Structures are given as structure tokens and as C-alpha cells.
Amino acid sequence: MEKLTSIFCITLLLSTFSTLSYSQEDTKDNKVSDDEWQAYLDNLAPEKSEITDYSMMYFFDVEVGQEDTFKELVTKYFIEGSKLAGVSVPTLYTMTTGEYSFMVIYPTNNPGEKFEFSRTAEDVKFIKSLAQHYSKEEIKSGFDKFYSLIKRSKRIIIGKVAPY
Predict the structure, then answer these.
(1) Nearest of 3, 38, 39, 41 to residue 19 by alpha carbon
(2) CATH class of the 54-159 domain in this structure
(3) Is pLDDT at 139 greater than 60 in this prediction?
(4) Would you say 71 and 92 are in contact if contact means Cβ atoms under 8 Å apart?
(5) pLDDT tens, 37-77?
(6) Helix, strand or coil for residue 45?
(7) 137 vs 131: CA distance, rounded Å
(8) How many CB atoms lie within 10 A of CB 55?
(9) 78: buried, middle or exposed (CB in 10 Å: 19+, 13-18, 0-12)?
(10) Is the pLDDT at 151 greater than 80, yes or no?
């Protein structure tokens, strides 16, 4: 968990300071004059991000002793269900340290959509596909059980800024 927090902080710092195109190496012997600095500030403008790969990271803390049930439900309904629907397939990670039991990462092309809509087009496709493969009772029971196991959760967006 500490490693993920460190990666997130580094990503945030890099994205914040990347507009200053001077590395320590560049400025070690080259001082920026007041005129150069003012010219930089005068030409400073918003830039569209070049990040195209985003993911939604979900962290889950589940009831003690229910870890295997949680994994089975995520695998059956979310991983296999996503494959059946032909939508972004999540990856499940078991956390060995930190405050959460599991992390699920969903790749997404439009991260803002998850905040703009309570149900996205991909969500609709996913649910309709589940309905073709499972009965409504199975789906309701599976989702009810899934949510009953979660003590708390958190969701964040990450952007791919380097190969990983």
C-alpha cells in the first residue's frame, strides 16, 4: 500500500511540475534570467494532457474470513461478466499490507464518465450481458452478497504516465 501511495504522489508531483521544462541537470550551471522567466510566464498556457490510458482503482476492505467468497464473487460477476460483455476487464489484487484487503483495477478510456453518470453505457452493456448468462435471482443474490462483505471502499482515477 505504501508503494502505491508513493507511486501516486510521484505521479502527482511529476504532472504538477512537468510544465517547468527545466530539470536539475539543465539549471545546475544555467541560471534563468528574469527576462527568460517572465517570457516563460507570459507564454504559459493550458495544455491538453497526453495521457490516454486511465484506470479506476477500487480499494475494498472486506469482512474477516470472507476473503475467498469476495474473490469468487469478483471473479464470477465482474471479471468473467466483463469478458462475456466485451467491456473493460478488471484485475483483482490481494493486498498483503495496508488498510484494504483487495484492489480492483478497471481500465477506462473516459474516467470522467464514471463521475458524470450513475450508470454508463458500458455498465448497461455489462448488466444486460449478465442477464443473458445468469438468472435475475443469481445476479441479485451475487451482488447483495458482494456488497454485504464490504466494510469500506475507496475509488481513485489513475493515468498511465510511464510504461508499467
Answers:
(1) 41
(2) alpha beta
(3) yes
(4) yes
(5) 999 999 999 988 788 788 999 999 999 999 999 999 999 99
(6) coil
(7) 10
(8) 19
(9) buried
(10) yes
DSSP string for residues in 71-98: HHHIIIIIIHHHHHHTSPPPEEEE-SSS
φ/ψ (deg, to 5) at 78: -95, -50
In which residue are the cell numbers 527576462 written? 35
The domain ranges of the chain are: 54-159
Indicate the average pLDDT of the chain: 84
Distances (CA, A) of 38 to 33, 35, 79: 9, 5, 52
Q: Please state whether 89 falls in left (phi above 0), alpha (psi between -120 and 50) or beta.
A: beta
CA pair distance 43, 38, nearest whole angstrom: 9
Instruction: Name the grid cell of 16.
Output: 504538477
